[in-house]
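so the lab meeting is tmrw and i was supposed to have these ready like two days ago... anyway. pasting both below. for each one the top line is the aa sequence and the line under it is the structure tokens. i havent really looked at them closely yet so no promises
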Amino acid sequence: MKTPGMPEFGLGALAGLRVLDFSRVLAGPYCSMLLADMGADVIKIESLSGDDTRQWGPPWQDGESAYYLSANRNKRSLALNLKHPKGQEIARRLAKMADVIIENFKVGGMSNFGLDYESLSTSHPGLIYCSLTGYGQTGPKRLQAGYDFIIQAEAGLMSITGPVDGEPFKAGVAIVDVTAGLFASNAILAALLHRNRTGEGQYIDVSLFDSQLGWLVNVAQNYLVQGVSPKRYGNAHANIVPYQTFQTKDGYLALAVGNDKQYRELCHAAGCLDLWEDERFQTNPGRVAAREELIPLLQHVFLSRVTLAWLELLEPLGIPAGAINDIPTTIKDDQTLARGMIQEVAREDGQIVRLIGPVAKMSKTPACIRSAPPRLGEHTRLILSQELGFETEEINALVQEKVIA
């Protein structure tokens, strides 16, 4: 189902860009999906058994896992056996026509197929080639496989996530994979700009480990400045007080007081002027130092009203606060719907797939969902015939030889 006002295929900011995506699971597919949303023609190269995430269910929609559906819209699927010499040759022919290649094999894995950057860039100097791995192409861990959960543990995130006195927690989504995909797409766009200026392609090395370190931002900087290991604060903030969840009369409230004016307004509105008049609490550094004394006093105040009453009180004053919504509530929120963040797309058989919509809203070349995540090998025959000139008999023979599916 076409979203009103959205452009047809070929009209996005990256229209005309050909991306060959050899990646699977999440980081690479998420990266290529972002490029596809902006108009790139992404060919997803899958093994004959398909992307691993096709089997990561339940839940399922018509045989496809929700996990797979989340990161593979706007692509074409070519099921190809890269272990077969004919499969490797097909991939190399497609690579010559590509602007960008994305892959997330282990270090050195693509060289086994003759599809590494060194092999391809010799005859294709404008090629932009992005490798996503667990630990990057260099360093003592470069040959180890990388998994989001393990990187969250090893690269510091879990040490600062979870209750103050409880066990370390991972994030609720595969945030390392997602942000690695974001870093990769950003680097690819920069490389494309460089190529437009110089004609030169380049190799991009993105690791999950580096990605997580990169977005530790102020927490890591706190350690670099102070030399003290950051600790877990639960839902509180290391540098700002009060900036955390509070229990209300009927639930919980997220409060983010970012400056002294907001704190003063909070105390006036909540009827606890004594918590402002106390000089220890009048500046953020003072509140951080007196956290253990202030927070229990504020908690007592927040127990006096239900969550909605607090929101109605604080919102007109510009004091940041929000209810802690579950996913169904968020999906149905008026703001979600107004921003087009839930969209529907129809498959050729008429089946409707609901998906999370593109994030960035571009005024001239808006990103859009043009097609549902493809079935395994859905476009194999079309790509081989239209892109590479294979005849029907040749394609049928390749199926029999288990080169394609």
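ok protien two:
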Amino acid sequence: MSAYQEILTGLSDGVLTITLNRPDRLNAWTGTMQVEVETAIRKGGADDAVRCIVITGAGRGFCAGADMNGLQSIQASAGADYNATRPSAPRPQTPSELEKVFPGRFGHMFACPKPIIAAINGPCAGIGLILTLFADMRYAAAEAKFTTAFAQRGLIAEHGIAWQLPRLVGEAHALDLLFTARKFDGVEAERLGLVNKALPGSELMEFVGETARHLATQVSPRSVAIMKRQVRESYFQSYAASLEVADAEMEASFATHDFKEGVASFVERRAPAFTGK
């Protein structure tokens, strides 16, 4: 995989692992990290060898939020630095309709055709928490500490979290977490519905690895890509429109290799060999 400055990437058994790699700063988010993570996700989304993407953090943290040096620079410039021209990841000349619906820093994750898993191994705050909300599934160490952080920095619910968080945990819980900026652990995150599952930290990566390998080898990548798009599009569709899309996609599925392989592997009692076609 390509070399990066602030992330590590590795591909094994169809699983692309992206590791935020500033462990001495609890992987605090920077402009460079933003560009590199987006670039890696976009490349993974377009690579047939990648079936699933995992995002985690190096060391004992996931992402402690925006790097304080960057926040101090924005504060000193009264916000001018926030709107300054910054490098951006390469983006398609013609973005998909789904990416047009979800603009901003992390909307490309919704548009990525590959399933994305956030493995939250430690402190997860601010923009680091927002990053995880755009993953398709989230698993956390039970002892990991979470916080929205914004209200304690004089900031607001940024980068789409005001839209995302209530849809995951409900309005009452979302307002509690946003207003108070209180800390909570992975166990509570699971109870709230913010993460799919909380596990002892020593078991997290093994569990996530097994889940990612299952997605990479046991299910049709074509099916997953279409189902992911169906769910994201449904946020702005009527039931009738969603059903119409499902009927059309189901009919198209019958002519694919993966449908034939799915049936054949079941009947023949063997592992499937899906191609995504």
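from a quick look at the 2nd one: The first strand starts at residue 7 and ends at 12. Residues 201-217 form the longest helix (17 residues). will dig more after coffe
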